[in-house]
């Protein structure tokens, strides 16, 4: 560990290749060969070409990964933030409890009486008896109880590992119970934790089921001239509220957000819009593609993290609809909002300019938050995803070359055909496509993180704790962004850590007001003297000795 004095002097001259070699030196040769493909020195060339990275493969046993499981990706991430689909975890109690609201997803029913089941963690609480004799009976009972107590419009059943191991058929139970309660849409997810190498598999499973069982069930378009869905925004710390505020001022109507601050009926009628915009590409690109195939709704990537990114995204949405009044209104909103943003940014920037950050989050955020740091003059030295795929790193252009990945074997790829009645092509003529491309809109595309990072930065997939400590020692960043498992290790090493999953206790960070919150907080964190006073135990007693509680 570095001495106290050396800390906070970011060593941006450190060569990433040397650091990579240092990391690999400790591994056995086979492990080193694998990790060498997952640790890449970025190099951006013509036409957004970047080096290839190995991603979405199984973590090597023994490595302390930061990843979660498929169940977490399905129940916790994609469905968790929706308030009126009653969600039952079929499994032992811990799975339900630990996937319940830990990332601070918020919701706001339209009326005080509106259904909101998010405050409950519902589970079948499987015991040994169910593991041995089967848990379907208990699941039926749980559904009956749920219907009688809450009268929900829809129920989702989420499978945990033991459910798959003992062979409970949650789909058969869902079908039976739907016969008993035809007014309730009941569907099950085969999202056992082991179904994939990470949360990412759970996203795909969730997308498939919500698409096939929910989207298109209700024809209830909202009022509004310019209606669209936001896919992949989960209302962490109130982000979706801020996005709703801004888009409303612009005269845009968000029909449905998948799935921050959302409800069942909005999902069920999501096919009635003219546009899908994708915020988190990793977790929901499947839904965007399937809705395009079945209903003809185009999608493009946007980003509401960062004030400039927000302005750019609003302009793109307005340009897509191509309405002069709308475009004017969007410009006015940007102009008004930017006054306060600029005021704070200019105060903060001189104090943050030149400082350095590292971002290791699950998927999109490791990319999106680089924008916010750049706005206050901070540089990203290294970044990576826990479970992103090659397309999230290198851009969707590489998708044709990803033939088999970890999910291919486990997760159904739905065959989607155009809906004979409801398919309607939009913006399909050469003229319209040409206009969109002039506006910088790339339908169906995502540029990826690496083309937007500097060359000679270090991109690391599925970072582990050992590698994290090497990065900390060598680079000495001014701030590290990750999650709760990393937070205290980093802070005990004298560097502040911002949780980008749950936002610690804060937020929103999206949109204009979110950017202001972020600038102020990061300023406080990177300029605080507090962390330089931290003394790790090994600095006083260089040798830590552990002992068992017994002696021979
Ligand atoms: Fe998408 Fe997310 Fe993320 Fe994600 Fe997640 Fe998350 Fe995340 Mo934590 S959906 S990939 S599975 S932006 S919970 S809201 S913060 S790891 S970077």
Largest sheet: 6 strands, mixed
Distance, first to last CA: 34 Å
Q: How many β-strand runs?
A: 14
Helix content: 40-55%
Structural classification: alpha/beta
Explain what this protein looks like in three dimensions.
The protein is an alpha/beta fold. Helices cover 42% and strands 12% of the residues. The chain has 21 helices and 14 strands. The strands form three sheets. It has a six-stranded mixed beta sheet with strand order 1-12-11-10-13-14, sandwiched between helices. Helix 6 (136-150) runs parallel beside helix 8, helix 13 runs antiparallel to helix 20 (511-527) and helix 14 (324-352) runs parallel beside helix 20. The longest helix has 29 residues, at 324-352. It is globular. The two termini are 34 Å apart. Mean pLDDT is 94; it is low at 1-10.
Topology (elements, then pairings):
Elements: H1 16-25, H2 29-38, E1 39-41, H3 70-79, E2 85-90, H4 93-98, E3 122-123, H5 128-133, H6 136-150, E4 154-159, H7 161-166, H8 170-180, E5 185-189, H9 199-213, E6 227-233, H10 239-250, E7 253-259, H11 264-268, E8 276-278, H12 281-295, E9 299-301, H13 307-321, H14 324-352, E10 356-361, H15 365-375, E11 379-385, H16 390-394, H17 430-438, E12 458-460, H18 465-475, E13 479-482, H19 484-492, E14 497-499, H20 511-527, H21 537-540
Parallel strand pairs: 2-3, 2-4, 4-5, 6-7, 6-8, 8-9, 10-11, 10-13, 11-12, 13-14
Antiparallel strand pairs: 1-12
The chain binds FE-MO-S cluster.
Based on the model shown, name its key terms.
globular, 21 helices, 552 residues, single chain, binds FE-MO-S cluster
